[in-house]
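Lecture notes, part 5. Sequence design as translation. It can be helpful to think of inverse folding as translation between two languages: the language of shapes and the language of residues. The source text, in structure tokens, appears below.
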């Protein structure tokens, strides 16, 4: 099994419980990690036999465009979208962080991992 990690993807999106977050938006960071059987890709050196990183990124970007109140829901949607589009991906981990969340104090980020 091989592990693919795509880390520190940055998005500006409109997720959050507060109306202002839904209107104004804020910055988010996404990390994704999954396993897949890479034997055929290794043997053939052909991108058709691997999980294309660009396609995974585009899948995540599409899910980030859909506003939600909860980070858990967004992370779950990302996980399900990857699983649906790339059935060879196993043990998909999604970490979604809201940067500088409006919690009434100095907080760097709040993260959810699914």
């Amino acid at each position: 099994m091989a592990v693919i990690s795509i880390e520190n993807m940055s998005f500006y999106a409109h997720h959050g419980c507060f109306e202002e977050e839904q209107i104004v938006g804020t910055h988010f960071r996404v990390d994704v990690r999954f396993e897949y059987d890479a034997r055929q890709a290794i043997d053939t050196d052909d991108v058709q036999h691997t999980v294309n990183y660009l396609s995974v990124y585009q899948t995540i970007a599409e899910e980030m465009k859909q506003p939600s109140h909860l980070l858990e829901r967004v992370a779950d949607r990302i996980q399900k979208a990857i699983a649906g589009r790339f059935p060879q991906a196993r043990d998909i981990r999604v970490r979604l962080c809201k940067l500088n969340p409006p919690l009434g104090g100095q907080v760097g980020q709040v993260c959810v991992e699914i």
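The translated text above is only one of many valid answers, since several sequences can fold into similar shapes. The chain has a mean pLDDT of 94.
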